[in-house]
From TrEMBL:
GO terms for molecular function: ATP binding; cAMP-dependent protein kinase activity. Residues 276-328 form the AGC-kinase C-terminal domain. ATP binds at K59. It comes from Polarella glacialis. Residues 300-328 are annotated as: Disordered. GO terms for cellular component: cAMP-dependent protein kinase complex. PROSITE patterns: AGC_KINASE_CTER (PS51285), PROTEIN_KINASE_ATP (PS00107), PROTEIN_KINASE_DOM (PS50011), PROTEIN_KINASE_ST (PS00108). Residues 21-275 form the Protein kinase domain. PANTHER family: CAMP-DEPENDENT PROTEIN KINASE CATALYTIC SUBUNIT PRKX, CYCLIC NUCLEOTIDE-DEPENDENT PROTEIN KINASE. Keywords: ATP-binding, Kinase, Nucleotide-binding, Serine/threonine-protein kinase, Transferase. GO terms for biological process: anatomical structure morphogenesis. This is cAMP-dependent protein kinase.
Length: 328
């Protein structure tokens, strides 16, 4: 997406309402609401509208998380991160107007393929590494990497979405969050965590792409946690030698040895032999031909997203005097 096109789509600062949009298919659902495909009636452009129920957010004491997500998205401008193009609210809901990524969830494509070849896994991993380096330079820790939070664009490049767990962390924080298979040992041990957790999750993702499932699996979350703390990783024969080497350096419980957290920071990952054929500048400029492009009919195609039933329950209105989102 070129810079000019971005500016045309950007409605930040404009007074918006749901009635400004034609609502389409639900693209995803979560604890507080859903994301829908929408078209702006005036400019004709397509977006993903994240609609969250105020009452549910207040009840679950998640106001700070949601406010933080919006503030973080306002700061971020990166080719591999979903752009936020506006925000608004009404008595029942808060809204985030996001870039629509037509290729759907990375998770869906990975499950269809079973697993990815080495070259494809390397291509995606490099983009996630670039995102983390960019975020960490702003002291933003993402904390929730998993295939469901990655989207694939028409050009075959990734877009990271859902910054609900992201946090500005100068040193460390103690909140337990993340998906069981992706949680780093320091989070489980409640030792305080920061940027290194993201590099751990990159190691898990690389493994899952190459093998088809994460390295620590169990029916029960407690079983997963025990395996993470035991730290035994089986590498099937499909693993490329250099990929295995990098995964081992990322999935190191000792923070003093984990790649991404040493004195050279993200450069240790960028300069790793697994990425030796890759030009980071070309990747950032999207000059590298993607190994896979999703099948897309047109800009309004939503077929790469699963179908979700519509919600029939109306969210209760929040009293204006008790509304923590008045400045939204």
């Amino acid at each position: 997406m070129s810079q000019e096109k971005k500016d045309e789509s950007d409605l930040t600062g404009q007074t918006l309402a749901v009635t400004d949009f034609t609502l389409g298919k639900t693209l995803g659902t979560g604890a507080f609401g859903r994301v829908r495909f929408v078209t702006h009636k005036s400019n004709g452009k397509h977006y993903a509208l994240k609609t969250l129920k105020k009452a549910a957010i207040i009840k679950m004491k998640q106001v700070d998380h949601i406010v933080s997500e919006k503030a973080i998205l306002e700061k971020l401008k990166h080719p591999f991160i979903v752009n936020m193009y506006g925000s608004f609210h009404d008595p029942r809901h808060i809204y985030m107007l996001l870039e629509y990524i037509v290729g759907g969830e990375f998770f869906t494509h990975l499950r269809k393929a079973g697993r990815f070849e080495n070259e494809q896994s390397c291509f995606y991993s490099a983009q996630i590494a670039a995102i983390f380096e960019y975020c960490h330079n702003l002291n933003i820790v993402y904390r929730d990497l998993k295939p469901e939070n990655i989207l694939i664009n028409a050009d075959g490049y990734v877009k990271l979405t859902d910054f609900g767990f992201a946090k500005v962390i100068e040193h460390r924080t103690y909140t337990l969050c993340g998906t069981p298979e992706y949680i780093a040992p320091e989070v489980l041990l409640n030792k305080g965590h920061g940027k290194p957790v993201d590099w751990w999750t990159l190691g898990i993702l690389i493994y899952e792409m190459i093998v088809g499932y994460p390295p620590f699996v169990d029916e029960d979350p407690m079983g997963i946690y025990q395996k993470i703390l035991a730290g035994k990783i089986a590498f099937p024969k499909v693993f490329h030698k250099e990929a295995k080497n990098l995964v081992k350096k990322l999935l190191t419980p000792d923070l003093g040895k984990r790649f991404g957290n040493l004195k050279n920071g993200a450069a240790d990952i960028r300069e790793h032999k697994w990425f030796k054929e890759l030009s980071w500048d070309d990747l950032h400029a999207k000059k590298i031909e993607a190994p896979f492009k999703p099948t897309i009919k047109n800009a309004t195609d939503t077929s790469n997203f699963d179908d979700y039933p519509d919600s029939d329950t109306e969210a209760p209105a929040v009293n204006a005097a008790q509304d923590p989102f008045t400045n939204w």
